[in-house]
């Protein structure tokens, strides 16, 4: 009875949201039956990954076994792969690039299927000079740093932002002052910049257990405490350090860090990299993780993010492109950590 009610509710939500495979908003009986069959075997651990080159090492691992009867379900432009990973039931979905795609895919995963937790992994830029390419980071908190209130020229930190009095925006998180990044004059003063200040903003959230249409706000979103506690057991895991004949200075390691950040920006700029580290104490910088975190936060679903460092986010030599060289190594290292993490969950 409970499963039938869940299915009816799910179909209703899909109709309302317009997430349809047909022109009139109806979900086909075939798709409904497949979803019902999949959920009968649940619950599952959701595995969310941005791109093919990050997902393929997982699919090619001997630890992943696709379901023989129903190996995948295609829905709304996504392919949800069904199977077992380290003998744990999983559903794997590739999101594609950016916060929007990551958010939609993570939401669909949790609306369509009986998911009890989410593991998101991939590669990322590195803002911490103490770490190196190939290291795998597991942050305790994630934030979206792409939501700004851009202040008019002439106003400063003591001036109220537009719509701040309505509760839409805040000065609590902090800002970036563009004149701080101008070339300095000989007397050490900076030239005023018409771009002025941009204030970072928390996201509006609407938790499933909250009052509908009554917004809450979230900037730093914590990963699941139980999941994060397993990080210590991942330390010492042997990771790859070479791509063909090109090897890293030391063997990569797994590191629990405080914060990671995401925005729809590929950061290849040393000045902004240094700002993100000094302002937010950020380590991995990517384009999807905070979206996964925010959706899981709203859905009250346990989650964790595992990101391997593939480049120095503009902090390396201008003569090299670390991401092109080490992306495959970083992706494999991330998968190796995910496999070990899932095995720990299973035990």
Explain what the structure shows:
The chain is α/β, with parallel strands linked by helices. The protein has a domain at 24-145 and 219-268 and 283-344: Rossmann fold, CATH 3.40.50.1580. 29% of the residues lie in helices and 27% in strands. It has eight helices and 18 strands. The protein has helices at residues 2-17, 29-40, 52-59, 99-112, 225-229, 270-280, 289-299, 322-346; strands at 44-49, 64-66, 72-75, 78-85, 88-94, 115-126, 136-144, 148-150, 175-177, 197-200, 203-205, 216-218, 221-222, 242-243, 246-247, 254-262, 282-286, 303-311. A five-stranded mixed beta barrel has the order 6-17-16-7-18, surrounded by four helices. The protein has a three-stranded antiparallel sheet with strand order 8-10-9, with no helix packed on it. Strand 14 (242-243) and strand 15 form a beta hairpin. Helix 3 (52-59) packs across helix 8 (322-346) and helix 4 packs parallel to helix 7. The longest helix has 25 residues, at 322-346. The model is unreliable at 18-24 (pLDDT under 50).
């Amino acid at each position: 009875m409970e499963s039938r009610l869940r299915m009816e509710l799910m179909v209703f939500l899909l109709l309302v949201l317009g997430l349809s495979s047909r022109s009139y908003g109806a979900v086909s009986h075939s798709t409904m039956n497949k979803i019902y069959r999949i959920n009968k075997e649940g619950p599952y651990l959701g595995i969310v990954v941005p791109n093919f080159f990050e997902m393929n090492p997982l699919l090619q691992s001997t630890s992943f076994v696709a379901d023989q009867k129903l190996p995948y379900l295609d829905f709304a432009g996504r392919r949800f792969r069904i199977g077992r990973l380290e003998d744990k039931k999983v559903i794997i979905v590739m999101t594609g690039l950016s916060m929007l795609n990551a958010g939609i895919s993570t939401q669909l995963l949790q609306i369509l299927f009986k998911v009890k937790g989410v593991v998101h992994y991939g590669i990322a830029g590195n803002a911490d000079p103490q770490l190196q390419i190939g290291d795998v980071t597991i942050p305790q908190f994630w934030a979206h740093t792409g939501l700004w209130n851009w202040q008019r020229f002439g106003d400063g930190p003591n001036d109220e932002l537009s719509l701040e009095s309505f509760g839409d925006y805040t000065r609590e998180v902090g800002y970036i002052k563009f004149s701080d990044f101008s070339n300095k004059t000989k007397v050490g003063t900076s030239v005023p910049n018409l771009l002025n200040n941009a204030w970072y903003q928390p996201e509006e959230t609407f938790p499933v257990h909250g009052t509908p249409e009554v917004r809450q706000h979230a900037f730093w979103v914590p990963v699941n405490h139980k999941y994060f506690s397993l990080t210590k057991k991942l330390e010492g895991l042997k990771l790859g350090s070479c791509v063909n004949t090109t090897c890293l200075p030391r063997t990569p390691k797994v590191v629990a860090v405080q914060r990671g950040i995401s925005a729809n920006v590929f950061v290849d700029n040393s000045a902004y990299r240094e700002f993100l580290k000094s302002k937010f104490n950020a380590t991995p910088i990517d384009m999807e993780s905070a979206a996964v975190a925010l959706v899981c936060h709203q859905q009250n679903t346990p989650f964790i993010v595992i990101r391997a460092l593939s480049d120095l986010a503009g902090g390396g030599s201008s003569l090299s492109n670390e991401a092109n060289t080490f992306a495959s190594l970083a992706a494999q290292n991330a998968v190796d950590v995910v496999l070990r993490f899932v095995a720990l969950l299973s035990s």
